[in-house]
Design brief:
- With about 90 residues, this protein is mainly α.
- The protein has a domain at about 25-80.
- It has helices at about 15-25, 30-55, 60-70, 75-80.
């Protein structure tokens, strides 16, 4: 039995090693492209959730709310003049 411990309990060692081998074979630009794509998808999911929570919000407010997920309240107020805790 191998002493290898996978990063996730629900992933087999064989699958994890396959994934790591694939990642090692990728060019740096391919890895950056993958990260950029994942970031865009994450933002799209955040926007979809915010649209459900704030159906009357403007596109600007939704974008500010996405930014407020990443930045603290004081930064949002200083940088954008917008308080994420203010009622819409």
């Amino acid at each position: 039995m191998s002493e290898y411990v996978t990063q996730s309990r629900d992933t087999s060692e064989k699958v994890e090693q396959f994934w790591f081998d694939r990642m090692r074979a990728m060019e740096p630009w391919q890895k950056l492209e993958m990260v950029a794509r994942l970031n865009r998808q994450t933002e799209q999911l955040a926007l979809a959730g915010l649209r459900k929570r704030f159906p009357n919000a403007t596109e600007r407010e939704l974008r500010l709310r996405v930014a407020a997920i990443r930045y603290d309240r004081q930064t949002m107020i200083r940088a954008f003049g917008w308080d994420p805790l203010a009622q819409p």
